[in-house]
Every structure is written in C-alpha cells, then in structure tokens.
C-alpha cells in the first residue's frame, strides 16, 4: 500500500466584516433614550450583526472634549449612559476569536438632546486638510486649508480659524482669527515652519471648537 505525505490544506480564516450602524441615526438629534436626570440619559446603540464576528467594541467620543470610551459586547446592541446636550460620534469594531484582524464600521455622529434645548451647537469641524502632523507644500507662498462643518439643526455656519507657529497663542486665542463663511481658506505662510491651527464653528448663537492640530510647511 502506497503512503502519501501530503500536507493538509489549512483552513482559510475569514476576517470579521464591518458592521452597519442603525441607532442613533447619523447627523440627527437623538430625542429618545431613558432620561435618568437633568444631566444624564441612557442611550440605546444598535447595529447589524457582522459576518465572521464573535464580539464588538463600541467606541463613543464626546465631541466637545474629544474624550472616548470603548465598551465590549458580544451582541450587536448596548445601552450606555451619556451626558445630555452634547454631540457625540460613534463606531463599532468587529472582532473574531480566530482572527487577529479587526474591522471598523463607518463613523456616525449625533446630538443627544438636553432638557430645554431649542438650538444645538455645531459639531466640531472634522476632515481637516492638511491632516495633523502632515507636511504641506506651499504654492506661491500660500496654503489652502479646508475642513467639513456640520450642524444638527442649521446649515448656516461661519468659521474662525486660529493659525500661528505658537501653539500657546492658538490654544489661548491670543491671535486674531481668520474669518470665513466657507469651509476653506487660502492664506500666506512661511516654508520650513510648524503651524498650529484650530477651527471655531458657529451657527450665530452657539459654537464649538476643534482640538489644536499641527502641520509642517515646505
């Protein structure tokens, strides 16, 4: 009898799929939830089950403070107590017990209703270009900076851009901002410098700020 020394074909391990988010809805005012008191509300997060996934990490970010919390769950939903009257972003990370690959969902934003809110502050601007820590090539000694501004209840936003080589002056607003009614500015800069910038978004009543970001010019 002839023996074979064939090596068995290893099983193909499928990475976890990306979850599709359901609730709270993207870019909407969240009116639901269990209001615990005047400050906190219990919010229900839900998403679709992802393929090849055993458990999930739910990451929620307070967009006012840019602080995040991540919670573990084995089912595609979770109730989380959050501060009311605050904008948040959230996403879900799918994980598998048989794969080291982790897969993130898209990122959604929502504004958690607070007691007596009649006007909601804009979300802090995101999608900033240049990205923080990147290098920007000047064109004729000028740079174009852009961002994405969003507001849960208004489309009329204006912006103030704090921009300087001194990080402290930017964070303390000790410089005059560049004002804009669009989501980009073109401004003269010097090459070979590290610039710091922060964007204030305003709907005419309330406003929000990004973190202070940086980029290098060449």
Short structural summary:
With 218 residues, the chain is mainly β. It contains one helix and 19 strands.
Explain what the structure shows.
The protein has 218 residues and is an all-beta fold. The protein has one helix spanning 167-171; strands spanning 21-23, 28-30, 34-35, 40-47, 55-62, 67-73, 77-83, 86-96, 99-104, 108-112, 123-129, 134-136, 142-150, 158-164, 178-180, 184-188, 194-202, 207-209, 213-217. The strands form 4 sheets. Strands 2, 5, 6, 8, 9 and 10 form a 6-stranded mixed beta sheet that branches. Strands 12, 14, 15, 17, 18 and 19 form a 6-stranded mixed beta sheet that branches. The longest helix is centred in the last third of the chain and has 5 residues, at 167-171. The chain is flat, with a radius of gyration of 23 Å.
Question: Which secondary structure elements does this structure contain, and how are they paired or packed?
Answer:
Layout: E1 21-23, E2 28-30, E3 34-35, E4 40-47, E5 55-62, E6 67-73, E7 77-83, E8 86-96, E9 99-104, E10 108-112, E11 123-129, E12 134-136, E13 142-150, E14 158-164, H1 167-171, E15 178-180, E16 184-188, E17 194-202, E18 207-209, E19 213-217
Parallel strand pairs: 2-10, 12-19
Antiparallel strand pairs: 1-4, 3-4, 4-7, 5-6, 5-8, 8-9, 8-10, 11-13, 13-16, 14-15, 14-17, 17-18, 17-19
């Amino acid at each position: 009898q002839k023996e074979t020394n064939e090596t068995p074909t290893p099983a193909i391990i499928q990475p976890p799929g990306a979850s599709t988010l359901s609730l709270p809805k993207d870019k909407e005012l969240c009116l639901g939830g269990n209001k615990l008191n005047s400050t906190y509300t219990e919010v229900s997060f839900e998403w679709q089950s992802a393929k090849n996934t055993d458990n999930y990490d739910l990451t929620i970010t307070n967009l006012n403070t840019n602080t995040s919390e991540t919670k573990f769950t084995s089912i595609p939903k979770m109730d989380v107590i959050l501060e009311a009257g605050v904008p948040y972003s959230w996403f879900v990370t799918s994980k598998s017990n048989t794969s080291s690959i982790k897969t993130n969902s898209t990122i959604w934003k929502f504004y958690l209703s607070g007691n007596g809110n009649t006007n909601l502050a804009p979300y802090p601007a995101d999608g900033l270009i240049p990205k923080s820590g990147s290098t920007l090539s000047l064109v004729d000694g000028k740079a174009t900076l852009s961002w994405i501004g969003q507001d849960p209840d208004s489309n009329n936003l204006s912006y103030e851009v704090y921009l300087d080589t001194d990080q402290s002056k930017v964070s303390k607003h000790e410089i005059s901002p560049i004002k804009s009614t669009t989501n980009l500015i073109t401004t003269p800069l010097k090459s070979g410098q590290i610039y710091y910038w922060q964007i204030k978004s305003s709907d005419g009543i309330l406003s929000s700020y990004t973190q202070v970001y940086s980029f290098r010019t060449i």
